Every structure is written in C-alpha cells, then in structure tokens.
Amino acid sequence: MNSRVLARQVYRRSRTPEQRLLAKLRHNGECLEFIGCRTPLGYGRISVGGETIYAHHLAYELAHGSIPNGHIIMHTCDNPSCCNAKHLVAGTHKENTHDSMRKGRWNTPRRIADRRAHQGANATRILDRADIEEIRNLKSDGYSCRQIAQRFGVGHNTIWRVVTKQSYREW
Ligand SMILES: [Zn+2]
Fold first, then answer.
1. Residues 136-155: what's their mean pLDDT?
2. Nearest Cα to Cα of residue 44 among 30, 26, 29, 62
C-alpha cells in the first residue's frame, strides 16, 4: 500500500464521527445539509464504528443524547438531509405519520405518477410494499380512504381494496 493511501486511512480513523459529520455539512438557509452519501430520499448516511447510520441520527445524538427507545427522529424543517440539531426532534412513528398528514408533506403522488408513466398503460402494481403497509397503518390510525387516496394520488376505491385486502392480499 502506498504511503499516501495509508496516511489518508490513518487520518480518516483519527477523526471522530463528529468531525467527519461537521466536515460534510453545508449551510442552506437555517438548515445544515449533509452533502456526503445520501439515500434516494435524501437522508445522509455516515459510517460510525463500522456501521452505517443516518447522519441526522448522529447529529441528534451528539446534541441531545441517545435516541429514546422506539422513537424516530423527525425533521421540523422537512429537509431530509438537514443535520441541524435544532431541526431534529424525537417522536414515535405514529406522531411522524400524523405530522406528515397534517402538513401534506408527502411526495408520494409524484412518485406514483412517475411509476405510472414508467410502466405505461399496463401498470398493475402502482403501489409498492411500503405503500401498502403505510395505507393499512393509516387506516388503522383512523384516516378515511378518501384522505389516504389524496395522499397517494390514487382513487379511494383503490385504497378501499388495499385496506380490505381485496388487492395486494399477499402483503
Ligand atoms: Zn433543517
């Protein structure tokens, strides 16, 4: 191994996760966006102790301590790549769903429209497994088929069939 590569590795290891996180943050308005590796949805990923975790989780833990059991970290700014600890709050999955519903934040209709355009007229599987789970969870949380349909950009009949397991039965 040449010495420059080795030096780089030693340097990388000598830096703390906090230093590596800070090196990848850029201001965008009030937000501190992670500009390193990101998931398709825009969440930053960073490796800590051989494990890859969400950058905003690390940011939260550095500022507020460990994430409470059974909680997820939500962005008050709706910016998935943001790691500004002031924009991060711990909440339950349910709270997050209600929060998104209230703000009408979901970009699902767009994603589904893309999928439809891609599959053309023969599209049979517009919804994926995560959608199906989400739809059934929302229904059991008390949302109406019409509300859920709006959120997903599909007909409320489609939602009704998912909820009653007339379609996507195997999920
Ligand atoms: Zn933010």
1. 84
2. 26
